[in-house]
Amino acid sequence: MKKRITAFLLTAVMLLGALAGCGGPANNSGDGSGDGGNGGDNTSRSLKIRKVNSLASTDYDVVTYTEDMSILSDNVFQGLYGMDEAGGGYCKLLAKDVAISEDGITYTITLVDATFQNGDAVKASDVKFSYDRAMATERFNYVTDMIDSVEVQDDKTVVFTLKYPYSAIDHTFFSIKITSEREITEAGASYGTTAHTAATGPYAISKYDPAGGLTLTAYDGYWGGAPAIKTVEYVLITEDSAAVIAYENGEIDFMNNAPTSDWDALVSASGDNNAVLKGNSIRTLYINYQSTTNNSILANDLVRQAICYAVDKNAINTVATSGLGTTSDEYILSDYVATAPEAKDFETYSYNPEKAKELLLQAGYTEADLAAGVSVGTLTTYGPATGEKAKAAQVVQANLKAVGLLCEIDVADSNINVPKLKAHDFDLGIYGDSGNYDFNNIRQQVLVDGGYCIVDLTGNPGGLEYSKVESLLADGIAETDIAARKGIYTELWSMVADTATMHPYMNMPVAVVWSSALNPGDGAQSPTYYHLNTFSWK
């Protein structure tokens, strides 16, 4: 069987969703006819996609797990801006025209002619409602705290007034999704717990079971053109081994982030219908210096540094992804984000167990202590028990044991363990995050006012001058020159890296397999489930 490895700038995979271009969503006009590779007519066939975890809510403002956001964003929910798949960054989506005042404070946005999936026209009042609603939650503080007001000028025009010029406002316009004020108001407390038609994307949620079931149905009135595939079913399969069997048996048609440990079997089952894409999603080991486990052992700077030196990134890549990933020292990849610091410009921690032991001895532990094993608590992560994060945790556990440190592993569904991580209820943690952001979004990790804050650095680990962190963040967002912003963020990340609280270790590959009956659509090198409206049956 032919194995196709594609080097592909995947700006959409694990990056909170994307559209096939902007300014007019792409539509695959395939009629679904033909034998589809299976000798039958696929016109009414449902597209079945594996889902790893149950969907926590149908309210986009509530979900926090990357897979959930990727499914809902832009297939179901859309923002004023979408991802620019061709050029990188963002581009206008529900926003037709954008006029910016000379001082960079006022954004006057004219909307495209679009309707919600309930048939109501999208109005400026819905935009104001959506932003006011998002701004009232902690989750979106990091992308909305620069907004002073959102006001309706007329049905098609909305005016944003900022508190200060903000060079990453495009990400804000992407992150906040526009929803139906009428439908959400009428639903009240039940919104998010059932199927609904409150969004503007090509697919509406037609069936929702919090225990795992999720079905999307094409919205034929979609402003970008009706999708070719009319029904998409997400099949909950938590274990990778079961997912592989389901794919081999034809029970699912598409798998994004397919288990790389079973890649050879998947390639054999898929023929030419597979690809390994160069992704942009970083895995990071977080070390919670505020943990009270074992008398606050992790508050010791030398211990955290020792943990970083003890981690064998190459071994993690081999075990967790069969070597298909890429080791990384960068929290956000400079290859993809112009403002991101490059690894050569800040302190990194290469695999050096001897150095790790030296630091532990300097921290006051004896050879006898290390021989017996010193507990650093529990390593918390999420996803399938046999998934890549669980496998990475096992390697880290073995790495730490080799230098005299012990930890237990806690792997659970994202709905259970992601909240633990974001509540700082962990000792060590492994978390996956998208790397397409403007580097300003490091705020979501180091500031406590955002719902994504995994590590709170306000307690000044390693003598961190936190007021300087805040000052650099303010300087970075006020600066419009890319090179100057990169310099600012390099200084910032050098300070953060010195705390040894966030240790990036790998950029995930994106392994994709799909049915021979499925047309990737619109010239894409392989399909991604983020672009459901570009799919069609052969």
Number of strands: 19
Total count of helical runs of at least 4 residues? 16
Q: Specify Rg, calculated over alpha carbons.
A: 23 Å
Mean pLDDT: 86
**CATH 2nd-level architecture of the largest domain:** 3-Layer(aba) Sandwich
CATH topology of the largest domain: D-Maltodextrin-Binding Protein, domain 2
Describe how the helices and strands are arranged.
Elements: E1 47-51, H1 66-72, E2 81-83, E3 90-92, E4 95-100, E5 106-111, H2 124-135, H3 141-144, E6 147-154, E7 157-162, H4 169-175, H5 181-187, E8 203-208, E9 214-218, E10 231-236, H6 240-248, E11 254-255, H7 263-270, E12 274-287, H8 301-310, H9 313-321, E13 326-327, H10 353-362, H11 367-372, E14 374-382, H12 388-402, E15 405-412, H13 414-422, E16 428-434, H14 443-446, H15 466-478, H16 482-498, E17 502-514, E18 518-519, E19 536-537
Parallel strand pairs: 1-10, 14-15, 14-16
Antiparallel strand pairs: 2-3, 4-5, 5-7, 6-7, 8-9, 9-10, 11-17, 12-16, 12-17, 13-17, 18-19
